[in-house]
Amino acid sequence: MSIETQNTIQKQKRTNVRWMMVVFLFIVTAINYGDRATLGIAGKSMSGELGFDAAAMGWVMSSFGIAYVIGQLPGGWLLDRFGSKKIYFLSIFFWSVFTLLQGTVHFFIGAWALIMLFTFRFLMGLAEAPSFPGNSRITAAWFPAKERATAVSIFNSAQYFATVIFAPIMGWLTHEYGWQSVFFFMGGIGIIISFFALYMLHNPKDHPLANEAEVQYITDGGGLVDMDQKKADGKNQGPKIGYLGQLLTNRMLLGVYLGQYCINVLTFFFITWFPIYLATERGIDIKTVGFLAAIPAICGFIGGLTGGVFSDFLMRKTNSLSIARKTPIVLGMLFSMSMVFCNYVDSITMIIVFMGMAFFGKGVGALGWAVMADTAPKQISGLAGGLFNMCGNASSIISPVAIGYIVQATGRFEWALVFVAVHAFIAAFSYLFIVGPIKRMELKG
């Protein structure tokens, strides 16, 4: 780049398209988690009408996770092979179609209703697989390191915002129009939003609204602005699967993967069993559950933003990724263990307070995707993100089933809450004693 060109760029007023990108990721992620939470709200009415017991509902809830985990490595490979734009659009479109189809299972008789619900939920999970690795790739491409945790916390906090916005709506829809309407509503919104991805998603160097000053700012700060650029021959080859061995033998990444697994146990408790806990254990009607479930979600939303801003503040002050990322994660996970106090109170107010505290802590500590954007090798960021999400979302298979059997065996939720809190402690332990220094991994060969 010539000196004249550099001077021209320096004089430009920098655009802020990167923040527009993260707002779009926020909207998509809110819909993503709203779709996942549909069974948590509609589950009681659906299971009552269709005759599903708690164990059956646990398996239906886990069907999403089974497919989601299976699809992570293929999804990450597809992102690296074809780029974020195409795969992200197809992901949103098809997961929304399969969400909508879940509202049709009442047309099937007996066991077929359970089989079809499991199938549609499974296909929804498969279609969602590239979503978070895609978020991570887009964030790594569009944000310098000193803004990355804030960006990740914004789109990641959408999981709480989804409950704040969609839980009351879904509770009202279930009460007024039946559980089927929840799936029709959420699926329809997703199909509409999917087409906006085709307009919004571009590489920073190719985006029509981003000027050279912004691209240079991102590049200087460590953003991977050329991640989806085609090679000289016009082709963009997929990553070598052989690189998986390097990812799986890296201590830092193994600790991050374990931490994400444990953090996601909390996530899937809140979006699956928590509304059912309020309705069955505490005897609250489903319409009220939708509104009460939104209160801890608001706390999680605030915690998510707080954790990201705090992490980037520490990054600017210490210039240490390890301090900046680990501190909020460890403190947040320890604070989230406060949910066990719900076992010792009968007041609904106190239960919501303790769950709000736990959700706030979980939000503060949910910086795994920021860590992944900081550490994933540039050449295989999609594959590395897919493996990260596969390990993390193994909890979406195990924890709903485990909680279902715990509740069925004991008839109550006390040990289920202990089960979730122990995972929060393990997450903190992993970041303190296993992860080690946080830095971008370099591939060998």
Task: Characterize the structure shown.
It is found in: Cell membrane. The chain is an all-alpha fold. It has a single domain, classed as Growth Hormone, Chain: A, CATH 1.20.1250. It has 22 helices and no strands. Helix 14 (251-281) runs antiparallel to helix 22. The longest helix is centred in the middle third of the chain and has 31 residues, at 251-281. The radius of gyration is 21 Å and the shape is globular.
Strand content: under 5%
CATH class label = Mainly Alpha
- CATH topology, by name, is Growth Hormone, Chain: A
Shape: globular
Q: Give the biggest sheet.
A: none
What is the CA–CA distance across the termini?
30 Å
Structural class: mainly alpha
Number of strands: 0
Helicity level, as a percent range?
A: over 70%
Counted by DSSP, the helix tally is 22
Please indicate the count of domains.
1
Q: Could you state the CATH homologous superfamily? A: MFS general substrate transporter like domains
Mean pLDDT: 83
| Helix-strand string | HHHHHHHHHHHHHHHHHHHHHH
